[in-house]
Design a protein that fits this description.
By secondary structure, this protein is α+β, with helices and mostly antiparallel strands. The protein has 2 domains: 304 residues, 2-Layer Sandwich (BirA Bifunctional Protein, domain 2), CATH 3.30.930.10; 89 residues, Anticodon-binding domain (Rossmann fold), CATH 3.40.50.800. The protein has 10 helices and 21 strands. The strands form 5 sheets. The chain has a 5-stranded mixed barrel. The chain has a 5-stranded mixed sheet with strand order 18-17-19-20-21, with helices on both faces. The radius of gyration is 25 Å and the shape is elongated.
């Protein structure tokens, strides 16, 4: 992609109505544009990042048997009445449709997936069943803030599992817990993300959240000093003074943002929709459920909070919008010709490259490259050509080095 053609205009200054790091840097770097509080447009750079996060999630969900579907965002009142949540889900965004019909814009999809499963699950042979989607959700947040960390419209992956027995549910739940830990490692958040015990509601004693340490986060967690990556949410700390895993009493307190959660739902949503199956003896049994949520857009904001410096974002390589940021400096025709040639070779080698072909001062190009945060910066100038080389610098490192023209493609591969 040539930067002269990119639909992006970076900002030198932080937007006045944003306070969190992710909101400031993603807006300045032209990844997102704010339409209203908690409502953002994902610009080309931002959408590339979001799609990469989604595809990593999709890959891991498919690997554990998940089948991808896409359920409606527009949901009729009747299904929410069945679970008695039409009047009790505080963030439900309601609207009137033609004929004075009541609908909601879906904040979650238990009420949709349960009657769907009723059509798919007839006997024990149809279980277990794992359905997931990556879809836009809506919540009528009273305090939309902190950029992508708390929004009214957001991307969400939700997987729902259906089981014939509690044992089968527990085994899959444990498997998904490990998969989530793997996902946050892949996002570069593993060292800052904790499996966190939280209020289980009517489902179970505990639910499990995945909380990433973040000063902009609204949750407070207490990290066990003995157990690796285990914490307790502040909401249940008083009733859980000791670690349920090791029995230890030593904790450190941190601000965090919830980037994922998993629940053992049991028969909570099966019962209202009469979701049953016939066992080996032909007897009807209630299907048991669990759900597993993760917000790709919120993960994107958390990554920026975790990976940045004073100059801008430092994207992990596997989710960066491009792998290479190619800069040509000065108005030297030879430098431009060589930059064009390297750009073509990078594309031919399937190496994602953003080519800054614009006529701008070197300082402005360097500052913008640091702000956008692409992992590798290549610079071609009259100076580098004198050495038959390209200047290579990793965004995460201070030092740059000269690499011979003939070696650069193979090195980046």
């Amino acid at each position: 992609m040539k930067q002269s053609q990119l639909a992006a205009k970076t900002l030198r200054e932080a937007p006045k109505d944003e306070e969190s790091i992710n909101a400031i840097l993603l807006t300045r770097g032209a990844f997102i544009d704010k339409l209203a509080a908690g409502i953002y447009t994902f610009l080309p750079l931002g959408l590339r990042v979001l799609r990469k996060i989604e595809n990593i999630i999709r890959e891991e969900m498919t690997a554990v048997g998940g089948q991808e579907i896409l359920m409606p965002a527009l949901q009729p009142k009747e299904i929410w009445d069945k679970t008695d949540r039409w009047s009790h889900f505080d963030a439900l965004l309601k609207l009137k449709a033609f004929g004075d019909k009541d609908f909601a814009l879906g904040p979650t999809h238990e009420e949709v997936v349960s009657p769907l499963a009723k059509k798919l699950v007839l006997s024990y042979k149809d279980l277990p069943l794992y359905l997931f989607q990556i879809q836009t959700k809506f919540r009528n947040e009273a305090r939309a803030k902190s950029g992508l960390l708390r929004t009214r419209e957001f991307s969400m992956k939700d997987l729902y599992s259906f089981h014939a027995s509690q044992t089968d549910l527990d085994e899959y739940y444990d498997k998904l817990t490990k998969v989530y830990i793997k996902l946050f490692d892949r996002f570069g958040l593993g060292k800052k993300t904790y499996l966190t015990l939280a209020f289980g509601g009517t489902f179970s004693k505990y639910s499990h959240e995945f909380q990433t340490l973040c000063e902009a986060g609204e949750d407070t967690i207490h990290v066990c000093q003995n157990c690796a990556n285990l914490a307790i949410n502040d909401e249940i700390k008083k009733e859980t003074p000791a670690c349920p895993t090791c029995g230890g009493m030593g904790f450190t307190e941190h601000k965090a943002i919830e980037v994922g959660n998993i629940f053992k739902l049991g028969a909570k949503y099966s019962t209202p929709f009469d979701l049953k199956y016939k066992d080996q003896n032909g007897q009807e049994q209630t299907v048991l459920m669990a759900c597993y949520g993760m917000g790709p857009s919120r993960v994107m904001g958390a990554i920026v909070e975790a990976h940045h410096d004073k100059q801008g974002i430092i994207w992990p390589e596997n989710i960066a919008p491009f792998k290479v940021h190619l800069l040509v400096l000065g108005d030297d025709d030879k430098a431009e010709e060589e930059a064009d040639a390297i750009y073509d070779k990078l594309n031919e080698s399937a190496i994602e490259v953003l080519y800054d072909d614009r006529v701008l001062p070197a300082g402005a190009k360097f500052a913008e490259a640091d702000l956008i945060g692409i992992p590798y910066r290549l610079v071609i100038s009259e100076k580098t050509l004198a050495e038959d080389s390209v200047e290579l610098k990793k965004r995460s490192e201070e030092k740059a080095e000269l690499i011979k023209m003939s070696e650069i493609i193979e090195m980046l591969k």
